[in-house]
Amino acid sequence: MRNLTRRRTAPRSAFAAIASHVLPGWDISLIFVGPVQAQKLNEQLRGKKHIPNVLSYIVGEKSGEIIICPSEAAKQAPTYNLQPTTYNLLLFIHGALHIKGWAHGVRMEKCERNLLEAYGTAHSYRYRHRHVPSKNGRRRGGRG
User: Which domains does the chain have, with CATH numbers?
Assistant: First the structure.
């Protein structure tokens, strides 16, 4: 795991445990990059010009790489009512599932929720709407 930014990320042990669970026997590299590098890689690897939150790809037999842009993740985390470090874990899970060959859909989202909850996040994906005011100003998911 290499962090090429100054941003705080989730604990290494969580990333390692998730990688072992989703991709047993694989060698997974995790790299954190800034927005300029993330955009360059996205254009180089996918031909897209926007700044991605996560990129993942296979680099060899049972070897893959996941690249996360923490600054982009920090912007998006509030949408899910997650702390940026927790959202980084979600992005890692997402990237690992893509390496495994999964496509976007209900199955992937359910697996992401289950893994995020299982690997010790304080701000579970399951409760992403808790304490977010509804249109009438009352909290969702709770009394009041």
Answer: 2-127 (3.40.390.30)
